[in-house]
Write a structure and sequence with these properties.
Layout (H helix, E strand, L loop, with lengths): L4 H50 L5 H9 L3 H10 L6 H13 L13 H36 L4 H15 L2 H15 L17 H38 L3 H8 L4 H13 L1 H16 L1 H7 L5 H10 L3 H29 L1 H4 L2
Amino acid sequence: MTNALPPLSGVANEEAGDEAPRRGSSGLKYALSKIGGALISLVMVIILGFFAFKILPGDPVAKMAREGNLSAEQVEHLRHSLGLDKSLWGQFWDYLGNVFTLQFGESYVYKQSVSSLIGEYFWNTILLTGTAAVIAIALGLWLGQRSAWKRGSFFDKITSGTSLVLWSVPTFWLALLLLMVFGGVLQWFPTGGMMSPNPPTDWLDRVVDVASHMVLPVITMVAVVYAQYVMVMRASLIEEMREDYLTTARGKGLREDLVRTRHAVPNALLPTVTLVFMHIGGLIAGAVTVEAVFSWPGLGKLTFAAVTGPDLPLLQGTFVVFSAIIIVMNLLADFIYRLLDPRVRTS
């Protein structure tokens, strides 16, 4: 017996030692595969960002020539200065150089670098979409878990019905409706912009001024997004309510509120993690409609102005930035989901 113990212990230690590297290498392999997939997606986005906008109708040089009454020689000089007289592949290499140096070229309309324009408008979009995302996530998850716990009740029917209706409403239609009713007829809130034409000088009054301009666009973005969190959270929690561990928790004497908040809701939150991060990226990219309707000075309004140009460098720059944000958010969702769910780590 004593002679047999050391080999068994050694085998156990050897197996434990093998298991740790396997788990570590599995985690590293998972991270590398996800990062590699994200990089491939980003490369495809960069390539698509050039060729997709090249097939758009309209010649920016011809439009600028009509607006400026340029002669034929001036038109050719303008085309040469913009690099549009080069071959398609020559323009593509110039585009790649601008992307990888994070300059994105010079805007045809604004006559400044696209990177400086994006930097100027980026934080305005983050302010608007970040506020909308926090409200939508908190509201959607709270209503979803309450609706699931009271499944079939009047509260559940009203919550689910309202969520489905708002989910199906087109964003631009809801934005215009809120603009006409609360900005035009009732005149409760400003109809556009980020600040008043003559903004107050006191910092607190400026904050209130900006907040009043945010109300309608934030309500629009929250209304069309929060419903997805409601429905996913509701479905996840209803599925968790069938599990045996909740019966065990009740058998220990826990109140229903504690059973829900300590046991059911944390497990039901797992499927919503990916959705939350995906929609944070999508919410930023989807700000084009809302910012255009409410004249909010962000990347969405900048993109809308670039489309009407057509301002190709600005379109390509905003497209790459929006797509990169979505890719990064999806990558974070994959990592956080693996961190929260041990079943993914051991698979």
